Amino acid sequence: MSIYISFMPGTLHFCADVHLGKLAPLRRMLGFDTVYKNDWSKEDLYGIAKNEERILLSKSPYFLKFPDITFYQIKSSDSYHQLKEVIDHFHLQPSFNPFTRCLYCNAILEKKEKAEVDISLLPKTKKHFTEFWQCPTCKKIYWKGSHYERMMKE
Ligand SMILES: [Zn+2]
User: Fold this and answer.
1) What is the percentage of the chain residues whose pLDDT exceeds 70?
2) Where do the domains of the chain lie?
């Protein structure tokens, strides 16, 4: 249905509604498979949740009326608290797997040697970091920077 979809066996799969745009990248940061697109309608979301057996995350109570999908209604409006809500609700702590998914396109990241990504790095990044990952789709490079530190603290 869309290029955002990818599966890892044995893990939970999610889809997030339009108001949770900040939550999806955070979840991907932790390695959870989350699909999200800002132009999906409620009907689209319902279809994706049902056909791909994904857990639907939304702040709207609209989806409570569908007994044939797994739905969790998000209460918080802060994206970090939203993430914590979902983690607590589904007991996801043991499945943390940071640096496995691209925050932008949900693709599985590839581990890279510093020399392979060297040309795209800022001098400061080059100096302070040793572990790198790259998205095979959009070519974005990841390392354990400030994002990661903040996330781990939260
Ligand atoms: Zn990407």
Assistant:
1) 84
2) 13-95, 110-153
